[in-house]
Each structure stands twice: as structure tokens, then as C-alpha cells.
Amino acid sequence: MRHVRLGVLDVGSNTVHLLVVDAHRGAHPTPMSSDKSVLRLAEQIDASGELSRAGADRLVRAVTDARDAAAEHGCEELMAFATSAVREARNCGEVLARVRAETGVELRVLSGEDEARYTFLAARRWLGWSAGQLLVVDIGGGSLELATGIDEDPDVALSVPFGAGRLTRTRLRKDPPSQREVAALRDWLDAQLVPVARRLRRAGAPDRAVATSKTFRTLARLTGAAPSSAGPRVRRVLTDAGLRQLIAFISRMSAADLAELEGVSASRAHQLVAGALVAEATMRALSLAELEICPWALREGVILRRLDHTNGTGETASVRSTGTADFTGSAGFAGAAGTGAAPAGGQETEPGRGGAAGDPNCVTGRTGGHGARWER
């Protein structure tokens, strides 16, 4: 069976990340290279709610660089998607059109629900059917995704605007944050997560609760989990007790000091406290004593779904799943069935709504070298 080299470009709120893998349907995708650049697009949204010209310029340059890198790595296909920062920009359609015109890359925007579904798929494939009723939690820069279910497609997939970067900008304005800010954010999150937890509980108690994303990996590392050098198959967990102790420590530190801690990247240090508070509130709302860290997340989910749609020779199969935006070829995501991030009450998104500025691609509502590690 012929392997296909795929590139997946993830335009997030904080970073633009290109992951290149060798894979075929039914096989374990092998990461070949991982290239990342820090854009902080969410911070480039102006007072009118539009992505600024400077932000759009930086995005075009980053996509151009990723396109060229994918070609250099021999990718047969580049799957490019954006999440909450681009999704929520009022000029989303205009930005997508400019990226397409200037780079030739079809950048599609995932809804928050689709983010949750792809991430759930990745965790399910990593953990297998023995995980039973699975609960998956992912903290991004702009949103928090949660999904639960017994199959590969979750029974409930939710997205709420509680991302680490977003809450840092709106609720933790001081550096380091004041204890009053920390207490207020804790109380606010507790109240906001009540309907979210209620919705997830109705789907059944999880047999296994896991977390994905850079934020959770960093928190686990700071509470004693094995470093990335130990490999992806080492079991890593984040406990509620360890997290509470960590928050008491890091909430009194400046972003500059946090960046000096092992495992904390300089580009994300400023939002670590907010991310920790979201993690803590989520675990409290769902009565979770620990979360297991899963190395696969959104990008891997996109790759796996793409492979599911091949006929075993690298060609796109005719069978398509429904209910989520699916990548079926080099032109990009073949339609977007979902909409954007769910409201703060944690309701699932309503299918079938149009994109921003009339653009069908805009769904309103998120180091090179062989053997690169899975990263987010």
C-alpha cells in the first residue's frame, strides 16, 4: 500500500503550525517534520472586530512560508485550516479570499464543534476502544473544546469561548495577575461551566477522561509528568491536587518569570495562568480527580479523517461522513456542515448556517527533520 505524504497547516489563535506526516489508511501516521511560527492573531483583532491589515499581512506571509515548506518536504497535499481567531474576525471572508489569491492555499475555517469532533477522533484512535466512554478536553487560545461519547464520533461536542489567550486579554490584565483577578475568574468560570457540565453528564459518566493541547501538556509537566524527551507513549496525568498547588505558585509570577520554567514556551507564558484556571474549573465542574494527557489532538484528527476518505491508494474515496467538515482532497475542506463556537451556555452549534461575509469557506461561530515529535 502506497504511503502518502500529507501536510496539515493549523492557523490558531497563537501559532501557525505545519505538521508533515507519512501515512496511509489503517496505518499509524509518522511525523516527518514540524514547523511553527508565532503570530498571535487573536491579539491582531482590532476594536471593530476585524483582523488588522498587519495581522492579515503576517498571516499571508506565514501561509506562504508553510506552502513552500510543504513543497520542499514533498507533500502531495496540504490541508490548511484556521480556528477561533480567524473564525471570529468580522472580515473573515475577506481575509480568506486574500490568502487564497496571494498564496494559492485554500484556508478553511473549522467551527468550534468540528474542532471538538476532530480532536475526539484523534484521542479515540490513540487510546482505542478499550477507553470506553471517552471524555476529551482541549484548551486553545480562543476556546475550550469538550466532547464525550462511546464511538469515534462523539455524542456531544461543545465549544465555549474560554480559551487561555482570550481570558488573559479580557480578565487577567495585570502581570502578574492580582489575587482579586484570579478569584474573580475562578468564580466566573464556575458559573459559566455549570450548563456545560450538565450537558456532558447527560451523555454518561466517562470511563476515561483525557486532555490534549500544549496548555495541558505544560501543566502536566510542571506538576511532575515526564518530559517530552521520554516519548509520546509514556503515561502522563494532571491531577486536581497538583494543579491547585501549581496555580498557587504560578499565579504570583510574571510572564517573564514563567517563561524561565522548564517546559513553558516564551510565546505562551503570558497565558499560562488563565489556562491553568480553565483546566482547574473544568475538572471541578466535571468532578475529575485527574486527566490523562493524550499526545494526539486536532491536527492528527484532521489527518486521520482525511485518510479515512482514501481508497487505500492515496486517492480520495467516494464515501463521506456527515455532520462535520471533512477534508477530501487538495482543494481543502469539502464543505462545512457545522457553524462556529457554541455560546457560553455550552449548546451544540446549529448546522447549516452561512459563513461570514457570504464566504462559504468561512464558518462563523478555531523544527524540521525526520522523527519530529507530535506537538501542539
How would you summarize this macromolecular structure in one to three sentences?
With 376 residues, the chain is α/β, with parallel strands linked by helices. The chain is built from 11 helices and 11 strands. The strands form 2 sheets. A 6-stranded mixed β-sheet has the order 8-7-6-9-11-10, sandwiched between helices. Strands 3-2-1-4-5 form a 5-stranded mixed β-sheet, sandwiched between helices.
Provide structural commentary:
With 376 residues, the chain is an alpha/beta fold. It has two domains: 4-111 and 321-358, ATPase, nucleotide binding domain (Nucleotidyltransferase, domain 5, 2-Layer Sandwich); 113-293, Nucleotidyltransferase, domain 5 (2-Layer Sandwich). It is 35% helix and 17% strand. The protein is built from eleven helices and eleven strands. The protein has helices at 53-72, 84-88, 92-103, 112-127, 164-171, 179-201, 214-222, 240-250, 255-258, 272-285, 298-308, and strands at residues 4-11, 15-23, 30-38, 77-82, 107-109, 134-139, 144-149, 156-160, 208-212, 237-239, 290-293. The strands form two sheets. Strands 8-7-6-9-11-10 form a six-stranded mixed beta sheet, with helices on both faces. A hairpin with a 6-residue loop joins strand 2 (15-23) and strand 3. Helix 5 packs across helix 10 and helix 6 crosses helix 10 (272-285). Belongs to the GppA/Ppx family. Residues 366-376 have a biased composition (Gly residues).
